[in-house]
Automatic annotation (TrEMBL):
Assigned keywords, A-Z: ATP-binding, Nucleotide-binding, Transport
Domain ABC transporter, first and last residues per copy: 4-234
Domain of life: Bacteria
Designated name of the protein: ABC transporter domain-containing protein
Organism, scientific name: Eubacterium callanderi
Family: Belongs to the ABC transporter superfamily.
GO MF term list: ATP binding; ATP hydrolysis activity
InterPro entries assigned: AAA+_ATPase, ABC_transporter-like_ATP-bd, ABC_transporter-like_CS, Metal_Ion_Import_ABC, P-loop_NTPase
Amino acid sequence: MALFTCKDVAFAYDGVTAVEGLNFEINAGDYLGIVGENGAGKSTLIAGLLGLKSPGSGQIIMGEGLRKNEIGYLPQKSPIQRDFPASVYEVVLSGRLNRQGFRPFYRKADKKAVEINLKRLGIEELRKRCFRELSGGQQQRVLLARALCATNKILLLDEPAAGLDPVATRRLYELVKAVNKKLGISVVMVSHDIESVVRYNSHVLHLGGRQLFYGTVEDYRQSPVGRHFLGGGEHA
């Protein structure tokens, strides 16, 4: 069974439909890129997968024993995030909060998860640094480590490369791809960068107020929607 299955899902705000006609699955090991123009419903769908917004119609079904507190989430970057006055270690450790329940202290397993993810993302040397003093690329790697501390099943990333320079963007995409391939963690990433999605991802969901396309990257390249938005060229 899929981690997520959407069946005829639609979302609305104040009675006005934001996105509709969503029918797709997210399976173990998938790397799904959600693309579309502003207002297409991408972030609304992420909120729905997180359980923060209920569909106006249709069903979102969670499978494979997945629970809401086992989803790693990296939201769009905000000024509050950028200026967060905590150490890198503290920020990454906070990714374990949803697993705490009523326990007042972090366990050894929580601290071990931090060490593992600092190393995975190559940021061990930043552990004592203040988060707000880091570059944009470093901050996103820290927040990705935080999200990984929450899950070993699926990551939801909402425009993780927004505001990054090309070098930091490429490095982030390569890290996320490695997490997907080497750890087998499913990834769902909202992005405006369609060319990077077809380079790194396995599947594409293209929204435009409704589902315009869902399928593999290979099929997307050959589809009318993909050809239109990719300009009809070849993309490796």
